[in-house]
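Here comes an entry:

___
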Amino acid sequence: MLGRSRSGATALPARRPSSSLLRFLPPAVAGLHVSGVAVHDPGWAEALKSTTPIVGPIRMMRAQAAGRENPLVALRAIYVALLASLPLFLFALSFIVPWDGSSAQDCFAGLVAIYGAAAIGLVQWARHRPLSLGSPKQLAASYRALFFIGVGYAQSAALLGFVGVFLTDSLWVYVLGMGFGLLGLALLAPTRADITRRQQEIASLDSTMSLLEALVVPTEDDPRSAGTG
């Protein structure tokens, strides 16, 4: 039933968001409001569960098939998998390559160090590139694109170290490259703090767009948001 305010104006009932939107809203942590519903950072617990061997991929596929996949959780799950892959390579190489190899290891280690420092600089460049503010979809897409560009730079340092292992027969070369790779990935982590930093950049451009909302809630033309209304 419609009520009336003190001024006599008719008070309209709050509009309830569609079920297609509600499916993507994670449990409350802290948030902003979209169409009367709080949109919150989903945290990292679900991302960590999604990277569990065997069970994790099945969970993600079922969530995607049911239309319940949270885009930010998916991005963080990819990040966790990329982060874990570098130490796993070290573990595998430790069974086949000695720590100290040929005399060429020092020269190649210097090359890895120079390249790694340059890669970190490129990671920082990607982190501070401006985001596209044309629409929520473009905002989320630009954030993800710059994230993966930075990942490419970070992992290239570890890849160079990986190649160096077989050229110098020394595991230390990979450890050096892996160190730069892990540092680059740490800078790129899609954490709440990083989203807040980016949101401050958006606000400094006098834009009211929300990066968290763009990353968590699929846009209307996103096929994952279709199905129910």
